[in-house]
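anyone else get weird line breaks when pasting these?? whatever heres mine. first is seq + tokens for prot A
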Amino acid sequence: MGSQWAHYQYIASLKITNAGKQSNFNMYTNSQVQDIIEKKVAEIYLPDQPSLLYKPVEYILEDGGKRIRPTLTMLAANLYSDTIDQAIGSALAVEVFHNFTLLHDDIMDKALVRRSRATVHRKWNENVAILSGDAMVILAYHLLCEGTKAEHLSEMLKVFNLAAIEVCEGQQYDMDFETRGEVPIGEYIDMIRLKTAVLMAAALEMGAIAGGAEMRQRKAIYEFGINLGLAFQIQDDLLDTYGNPETFGKQIGGDIAVGKKTFLFITALSKADKLQTAELKRMDGTVEERFRRTRDIYDQLGVKEEAEKAIAEYFRKALSVLEGCPDSGDRSQPLLEYAHSLMQREK
């Protein structure tokens, strides 16, 4: 990536190296947290029947994915508590809800591959994917209610409910954009804040609640999540065009194939001349042909570099907020390391 991005990677690595070498509290590592999550996800009870309702749920949950959101929840809990068991209910709820959105998103996007496997609607059918996704929403609330301390449940539900409806709003805006000729970059940022960033921010805030954080601490960790989520989604846009097909886990060029208004596409339109604009908006030819000509224009206009700058800037904001999280001190080391690893991903 560009020099600005490399600069922020270097800053982050210095903070990681220097953080909390002499710690007296119980600080969980990323791998420990992820081991706990995998074990607990595998323990989620799903009935055998009706099999067409529960098998798809098992199918998408067993594949693993990156478990980003529940990891954020558990690490946020550890910011303010030596124990994290009290956060597992909210962590599982966020993970199940996130996977529900994938089932329905894949139908809307006509996606054939998810995590290098057939999407649920392709393996079974759209009706199965819709109903299994609906069941996952209910399961998410069950896990949240069953795994949350009574004194925290009301606040947890407020955060979770707001994120859940905002994710749906973001998805609707994303679909609306597909039928619009042009979308301002500001509207795009608002859309991905809703569609992607708010769930990551909510996952962090719910972990902070479980850890006993105060409101000022919750607000700070939520803001960290928003900026991390924005960087993460623009990075996802970038990987969809410039990622390695062998590691990305989804179809490269899928956004271009369905005419999504991504950061790259919107930036290209803002810089394109009339001929390039006409080429970008052409939907004829095969998927491969559309991908090649769109990527060629991106290369001509320096769109990849613009995306890298935006990722670096939102990540810088996230690091700044995390550094200033009230009373977290050296406890932020694992979360900082994890955020840094997300920005180095290839899928």
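and prot B, same format (seq, then tokens)
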Amino acid sequence: MTPARGGLIVVSAPSGAGKTTLCRRLLEALPGLVFSVSHTTRPPRSGERPGADYHFVGRAEFEARRTAGEFLEWAVVGGELYGTSAVAVETSLSEGLDVLLDVDTQGAAAVRRLKPEAVLVFILPPGPEALRARLLARGSESEEGLERRLRLAAAEVARAGEYDYQVINDDLDAAFERLRAIVVASRCRTPRLRDRLDTITSRFTAKSS
């Protein structure tokens, strides 16, 4: 039997809100959920694995792919290009897998326009003070870089109301359970189960006739 079509889960958050940690835990905890590996023109950071964290490509290759319409969404972040492969996402969805997208607010808005059935989740820190403390704890931000990230965070949080769900990361374990519950609930939405629902309904109709 052809598997039911998978669902698209889009997660956004300001830098330092805990999105990466939450998404990794989610992927480990939920079978049938896969991560969409984005293409980017930025160089790899320490510990990043090509093909697993990102597909690292040159600007010319990225722009050629963009011109060819290969990206479901793309955005410029910090002067670098990021994009999500439309073919890779569609292949996973058609195989019945849920696809997790880690994108910024620009990317999420683009996905919403093309895939209105997508579930959009925004991860929020409990406040700017907590976000500042988390960014400082990284030990990798200059004062100028920190202020830039906080300004960007304010702009991103201002768009949180465009998302279907909000997860406040005031406690990591609790935030993870909220995020997990959203994904599990999305698998029970009527459009996702339409074919199976129709089959079950027809059996009840046949039984009662």
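btw re prot B: The two ends are 26 Å apart (CA to CA). Residues 14 and 154 are 8 Å apart (CA to CA).
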